[in-house]
Design brief:
By secondary structure, the chain is α/β, with parallel strands linked by helices. The chain has helices at 6-13, 34-44, 50-71, 88-91, 137-150, 182-202, 221-227, 231-249, 281-287, 332-342, 370-387; strands at 75-76, 95-107, 116-130, 155-156, 158-161, 207-211, 257-262, 292-296, 316-322, 351-355.
Length: 389
């Protein structure tokens, strides 16, 4: 075990950039503490008030931020502990979009190898898409207060879903009856995001992670056919997804660091898709206006690291080589060899290390304990220290 102090670790691992990204990162979501799960059930049954639930969540965020600081992580998130899932809370926070029934989306490869059905919530367009209240404004304030109280010098990182998860993702919104054409809907989605980002920046946010599972659909042969086929048609479809994403970031403050996370599904230790980044890599790295890519590379489903040859100067790829789906710690030498392999295609100074996804993309979380989760993150920090000395 390393004897380096957390503050010294944070200084060393900040070598990518003092404000992020950091050599050791994590994608954002953390297992819900038992107190939060219990309090949420009590709130749903009416046994406690909304204010009492918020107080429990605030305390959980303070605890999670301290733990991240103790490990020496340079960025701190709130673990997404207030959310039902990584994206739905944001989507339904937009005016004009309402929840409906549920649909079952198949995930595969859980711990017992059987199919798991994710109960997604259907979305319906009831009016023009607008931003009312800042969706994660109170959550950001709580995170900032927790970071200041912990005194670790960590950078607060907020996670939100990509605009492609509002419309271009798993279940596109039906726009007829509200809009004259699809372009008008896309423009309103982009405008709502731009306003949200402006407000978050004004509130002090300087590190934003925008998660986009939709772009990984193109790597899966089955999903690719349903989205755009092959060749020029596929390229136009990918361009449309990237254009929607970029429109949401248009005019963003230049001192706001923005990254995007891509994975193949993460629900109760199961996955939804397979296939590498090959068909989107060139457009992803060169056309998408983000600074950082947190990419899943923890097993053969993620494809080859050779796609990193498309990474231009000035951008960072955080290699998701450590799985968040199982508790076993990866061999440190194997992780170092994988980073060495990645450095054959992109400069080592443009690389970093993280788990391949969050530990709890939904409230259920993955199949490991909190202690095992922290051990995984400690492992990421220690292996990163041994690579970027």
């Amino acid at each position: 075990m390393s004897t380096t102090t957390p503050s010294a670790r944070a200084d060393r691992l900040a070598a990518v950039s003092p404000g992020g990204p950091f050599r050791a990162e994590h994608v954002g979501s953390l297992l819900r503490p038992a107190a939060v799960t219990r309090a949420r059930a009590q709130r749903e049954s009416g046994d406690i008030t909304a204010e009492q639930l918020t107080a429990v969540e605030d305390e959980a965020v303070r605890h999670l931020v301290r733990r991240q600081g103790d490990l020496g992580l340079g960025a701190a998130t709130d673990g997404e502990v207030r959310r039902h899932s990584w994206h739905e809370d944001f989507v339904f926070g937009l005016e004009g979009i309402e929840p409906g029934g549920t649909f079952a989306f198949p995930f595969r490869g859980g711990l017992d190898g059987t199919e798991v059905l994710w109960p997604g919530i259907e979305r319906h367009l009831r009016g023009p898409v607008r931003l009312g209240e800042t969706i994660f404004g109170p959550a950001l304030a709580s995170l900032q207060e927790a970071v200041a109280e912990a005194g670790t010098g960590a950078v607060p990182k907020l996670t939100i879903p990509s605009p492609n998860m509002v419309h271009n993702g798993v279940t596109p919104l039906g726009w007829t009856g509200v809009y004259d054409d699809e372009a008008a809907l896309q423009a309103d989605v982009a405008a709502a995001y731009a306003e949200e980002i402006t407000r978050l920046h004004a509130a002090g946010l300087r590190y934003l992670q925008v998660d986009d599972v939709a772009l990984t659909f193109f790597g899966d042969p089955v999903h690719r056919q349903s989205l755009g086929g092959e060749g020029a048609t596929l390229r136009r479809t990918v361009d449309a997804f990237i254009s929607q994403f970029n429109a949401a970031l248009a005019g963003r403050p230049r001192d706001l660091l923005v990254g995007t996370h891509l994975c193949r599904g993460n629900y109760r230790s199961a996955w939804a898709m397979e296939g590498g980044y090959d068909v989107v890599a060139e457009q992803l790295f060169n056309d998408l206006d983000v600074d950082v890519y947190y990419l899943e590379f923890d097993d053969e489903r993620s494809g080859s690291l050779e796609v990193l040859r498309h990474l231009p100067p000035g951008k960072t790829v955080v290699l998701g080589l450590v799985t968040s789906k199982t508790p076993q710690l990866e061999d440190a030498d194997l992780l170092r060899r994988r980073v060495d392999e990645a450095a054959r295609y992109a400069p080592l100074e443009q690389l970093a290390l993280s788990p391949q996804c969050g530990f709890a993309s939904t409230k259920e979380g993955n199949a490991l304990t909190e202690d095992e989760q922290w051990a995984k993150l400690a492992h990421v920090v220690e292996v990163s220290e041994s690579i970027w000395r």
